[in-house]
Specification:
Length: 162
């Protein structure tokens, strides 16, 4: 009687497939958990920086009558209202030396400050900062209220990218 020694070793194949599948699932879950943590950290960082920037902008600044050569804190408010002179100084500083404004705001993110009917002596402007910041990923918008030309105004700060 002849014994046939040909057979399939499907049991070993099944064990290897199970191990590969298990490793793949573990990698997926570890990656998913880390992504959620990174997104929350990024959101928290953007929120803290955005609040800091907007609090500075909606202050009197330092010194009170600051200009581009002596500014320590960029602020556009005087007597509880947006001051057109300070707004224009902020616009010009951002236009001529955006990196200085980033360092004054102590952030690594790009920003775009805006509100309706914003204008300086040379005419209407859309906003101050990087106008394309809201086209990138990881951007948040912070809004506050202020007074501009004796009317309540919603001011917006988009912050993100980098």
């Amino acid at each position: 009687m002849k014994i046939n020694k040909k057979s399939q070793a499907w049991g070993i194949d099944l064990v290897f497939a199970f191990i590969i599948f298990s490793v793949g699932i573990m990698i997926f879950f570890v990656y998913s958990i880390n992504q959620t943590g990174e997104a929350k950290e990024k959101f928290d960082s953007l929120t803290v920086d955005g609040d800091f920037i907007l609090n500075n902008i909606l202050s009197e600044g330092y010194p009170i009558d600051w200009n581009s050569s002596n500014v320590i804190i960029i602020g556009i408010i005087s007597d509880g209202k947006i001051n057109n002179t300070k707004l224009e100084r902020f616009y010009n500083l951002s236009l001529n030396n955006y990196t200085t404004t980033i360092s004054k705001f102590r952030t690594r993110y790009n920003y775009y400050f805006s509100f309706d009917n914003m204008s300086i002596s040379s005419g209407a402007i859309n906003g101050i900062g990087k106008s394309d910041v809201n086209t990138s990923n990881n951007v948040i918008r912070i809004t506050r209220y202020s007074i501009y030309n004796n009317k309540p105004t919603v001011v917006k700060l988009d912050i993100g990218g980098n």
